[in-house]
Design brief:
globular, about 20% strand, L-2-Hydroxyisocaproate Dehydrogenase, Chain A, domain 2, alpha/beta, Rossmann fold, four-stranded antiparallel beta sheet, 15 strands, binds adenosine-5-diphosphoribose, about 325 residues, six-stranded parallel beta sheet
């Protein structure tokens, strides 16, 4: 009998459980949900499994607090960690960078458990601070760089497209463009590479409106935290599932993802958001696009911010610029 794709999602919280939901709905494969809280992943998996007769998906859904059930996964999504929160007293939000110490221990431990049982899997990092956690997963798994990839650009780009569609009153389907760089306030939206049904964005919106959209996109995570008091999860989960789908179905979509650069865009040993071709092999290709001087300068600011967080890690010293 043929074997279905196997997708493991570690962290059955908001992003993890929602990703499991959409992966199941898209029939992407059997799903294993792992979480540290007893009963939690089991409950989420059972609830989701009980929706199958209504929704019509034939998948095996397993929830567990251990890792043996994850063996031989094709794709493993790691969302485990502590999300950004709003302090009820000071009203201040946890910055992504403040999470590095706590989440590196969680993500490192999870990665070792996964890597020993699924040595051929593609690992997708969702835990924040994203770019730094990609380094943790890469170092702890010892996987080739093609099989460790971070989810950030798809989400940032989705937010960017949402705001453009809203401003122009047009379908989100007809907006093409991407956001590069690190997953933080220094991300690099590319308005000169953005088009609406083939028409350049710069012809359709005045610069002040484009600037406002870029500002809102950079602040996209914070805007949701400000409203909810905790991080968003529909858009992050949808973005993660788009990557999972491109990998398990070998679609070779061109998606902006955090990939380990080895000279591309002038950077070495640094995870940074760049256009990637995602297929069965993971990051099958990094596409180097021509950037203008202003965009290169913005990417450098973003890379510097990522490098500062990565430098906190025990193995972060390797991350440096080539030029
Ligand atoms: N092993 C397994 N699961 C763990 C571990 C661990 N060592 N530590 C924490 N978890 C689980 C938590 O029990 C929780 O269910 O990770 C889950 C995280 O879920 P949420 O707190 O709901 O956070 P979520 O909004 O899903 O965000 C997850 O994605 O976008 C990023 O910044 C976000 O890093 C955060 C991650």
């Amino acid at each position: 009998m043929s074997r279905r794709n196997k997708i493991t999602i570690v962290g059955a919280g908001n992003v993890g459980a929602t990703a499991a939901h959409w992966a199941a709905q898209k029939h992407l494969g059997d799903v294993v949900l792992v979480d540290i809280v007893p009963g939690f992943p089991q409950g989420k998996a059972l609830d989701l499994a009980e929706s199958a007769p209504v929704m019509g998906f034939d998948l095996k859904l397993v929830g567990t607090n251990g890792y043996d059930e994850t063996a031989d996964s094709d794709v493993v999504v790691i969302t485990a960690g502590v999300p950004r929160k709003k302090d009820p007293v000071t009203g201040k939000f946890t910055s992504r960078d403040e999470l590095v110490e706590i989440n590196r221990k969680i993500v490192g431990g999870v990665t070792r458990e996964i890597a020993s049982r699924s040595p051929n899997a593609v690992l997708i990092c969702v835990s924040n601070p994203l770019d730094a956690m990609c380094h943790v997963m890469y170092e702890e798994s010892k996987f080739p760089r093609e099989r460790v990839v971070g989810m950030a650009g798809v989400l940032d780009t989705a937010r960017y497209k949402t705001f453009i569609a809203e401003a122009l009153g047009v379908s989100v389907d007809d907006i093409h463009g991407m956001v590069l760089g690190g997953h933080g306030d220094t991300m690099v939206p590319l308005p000169t590479h953005t088009s609406i049904g083939g028409i350049p964005l710069t012809e359709l919106l005045p610069q002040d409106k484009i600037d406002a959209i870029i500002h809102r996109t950079r602040n996209g995570g914070g805007e949701i935290v400000g409203l909810l008091g905790y991080s968003g999860y529909y858009a992050p989960a949808a973005s993660t599932v788009a990557m999972v789908e491109s990998i398990v179905r070998d679609r070779k979509r061109v998606l902006p993802c955090a990939a380990l650069l080895r000279g591309e865009y002038g950077y070495h040993d640094l995870f940074l958001g760049v256009p990637c071709v995602l297929g069965k092999g993971g990051v099958e290709k990094i596409i180097e696009m021509k950037l203008g001087d202003k965009e290169k300068a913005m990417l450098e600011v973003s890379a510097k911010a990522v490098r500062e967080v990565v430098a906190i890690l025990p193995y972060g010293q390797n991350a440096q610029a080539a030029t």
